[in-house]
């Protein structure tokens, strides 16, 4: 099926905010605090890795790819002494549904959930560890829960593909953060803070990329760096787009028209910040047609 890879990026900008309430909505933080987790990162690593079961920090560092190993090790495996993965998963889902309900998501939720669920349920599992772990979970029954679960599946499907693209093109997880900031996709200070870099560690990655001709002396992308970054994003989009092959062009158009207003409600809710490590683009959300 021939479709532009820009479709995948436009879909991601709609999917990610709905999933991301699990990181930013107060209901999510309250639910994890209620289980006994202390601090954002303890709950984050527990909740996002819970589909893998009581995974070791080494496994989670490998799967998540761009986090410092010592940051993961501070949260895991200690998290599983606080709450079992199944308990964390239940809290994660119920908190997300509570947040989405508060934003007023109602119209077209069932249609969007059905179409996203069809894509997520048909997508190939090969090489996509975090996607596969999430898809092995039981499908929720209620439409809002199904919507959130489907967006979670498809964003992790894309994330697994992104890691594969980075690996194939020789960019480490730590280098990818610096490259992402240099491309203007995320603020450097935000990614340094959220991914545990001091100035020396950041400069180390800059020097590594500069040594390969991808950054110049000022830490800006060279022509080769821009080309490589474009190849990473294009490959990520191409790999993500395959998940939607099961949907006809008509179904895909319906998905855009039903999903976009839901995403606007989430964005208007104000919990998901405009700048996130995922580098979301909200400029396209005024257009709900392909």
Please characterize this protein's 3D structure.
- The protein has one domain.
- It is built from 15 helices and no strands.
- The chain has helices at 6-24, 26-35, 40-49, 57-64, 69-75, 79-82, 85-103, 109-122, 129-135, 143-168, 173-182, 188-194, 199-211, 223-241, 249-269.
Structural class: mainly alpha
Helical content (DSSP H or I, runs of 4+): 55-70%
| Poorly predicted runs | none
User: Beta-sheet strand percentage?
Assistant: under 5%
Number of domains: 1
- The DSSP helix count reads 15
Order of helices and strands: HHHHHHHHHHHHHHH
The chain-level mean pLDDT equals 95
The largest β sheet comes out as: none
The first-to-last residue Cα distance is: 16 Å
Quaternary organisation = single chain
Topology, number of strands: 0
Coarse morphology: globular
What's the alpha carbon Rg, rounded to whole Å? 19 Å
What brief labels describe this structure?
single chain; mainly alpha; globular
Topology:
Blueprint: H1 6-24, H2 26-35, H3 40-49, H4 57-64, H5 69-75, H6 79-82, H7 85-103, H8 109-122, H9 129-135, H10 143-168, H11 173-182, H12 188-194, H13 199-211, H14 223-241, H15 249-269
Helix pairs in contact: 1-2, 1-7, 1-10, 1-14, 1-15, 2-7, 3-5, 4-5, 7-10, 8-10, 8-15, 9-10, 10-14, 11-13
Task: Give a summary of the structure in a few sentences.
This protein has helices at residues 6-24, 26-35, 40-49, 57-64, 69-75, 79-82, 85-103, 109-122, 129-135, 143-168, 173-182, 188-194, 199-211, 223-241, 249-269.
């Amino acid at each position: 099926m021939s479709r532009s890879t820009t479709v995948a990026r436009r879909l991601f900008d709609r999917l990610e905010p709905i999933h991301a309430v699990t990181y930013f909505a107060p209901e999510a933080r309250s639910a994890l605090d209620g289980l006994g987790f202390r601090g954002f990162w303890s709950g984050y690593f527990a909740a996002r890795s819970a589909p893998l079961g009581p995974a070791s920090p080494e496994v989670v560092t490998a799967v998540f790819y761009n986090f410092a190993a010592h940051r993961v090790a501070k949260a895991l495996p200690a998290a599983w002494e606080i709450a079992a993965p199944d308990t964390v998963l239940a809290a994660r889902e119920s908190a997300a549904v509570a947040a989405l309900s508060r934003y007023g998501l109602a119209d077209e939720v069932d249609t969007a959930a059905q179409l996203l669920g069809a894509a997520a349920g048909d997508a190939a599992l090969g090489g996509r560890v975090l996607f596969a772990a999430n898809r092995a979970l039981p499908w929720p029954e209620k439409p809002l829960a199904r919507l959130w679960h489907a967006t979670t599946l498809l964003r992790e499907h894309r994330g697994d593909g992104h890691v594969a693209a980075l690996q194939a093109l020789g960019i480490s997880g730590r280098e990818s953060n610096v490259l992402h900031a240099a491309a203007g996709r995320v603020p450097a200070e935000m990614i340094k803070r959220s991914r545990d870099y001091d100035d020396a560690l950041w400069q180390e990655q800059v020097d590594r990329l500069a040594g390969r001709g991808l950054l110049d002396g000022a830490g800006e992308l060279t022509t080769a760096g821009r080309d490589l970054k474009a190849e990473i994003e294009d490959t990520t989009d191409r790999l993500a787009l395959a998940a939607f092959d099961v949907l006809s062009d008509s179904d895909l158009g319906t998905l855009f028209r039903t999903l976009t207003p839901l995403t606007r409600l989430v964005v208007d809710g104000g919990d998901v910040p405009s700048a996130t490590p995922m580098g979301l683009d909200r400029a396209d959300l005024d257009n709900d047609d392909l």
